[in-house]
UniProtKB/TrEMBL annotation:
This is DUF2905 domain-containing protein. The chain crosses the membrane at residues 44-61. InterPro entries: DUF2905 (IPR021320). Keywords: Membrane, Transmembrane, Transmembrane helix. The lineage of its organism: Bacteria, Pseudomonadati, Pseudomonadota, Betaproteobacteria, Burkholderiales. Pfam families: DUF2905 (PF11146). It comes from Limnohabitans planktonicus II-D5.
């Protein structure tokens, strides 16, 4: 369980950095990706995209 939590948190960090590039591919607009305004700032929680990219990374790691 702790490994998955670490993987998801790392993917959130990576996803935040690569967000402009990945939006061109359609990530960040999936159902379950939340975008809201709070304290005059726009917040973005890409939960579904993070899980999808995490599973993809896991499959690639197991395949190699």
């Amino acid at each position: 369980m702790l490994r998955w939590l670490i993987v998801v948190l790392l993917m959130l960090i990576v996803f935040s950095g690569l967000q402009p590039w990945l939006q061109k591919l359609g990530f960040g607009r999936l159902p379950g990706d939340f975008r809201f305004r709070l304290f005059r700032r726009e917040w973005f929680l890409p939960i579904t995209s993070t899980l999808l990219l995490s599973m993809l990374a896991s499959l690639v790691a197991k395949w190699l």
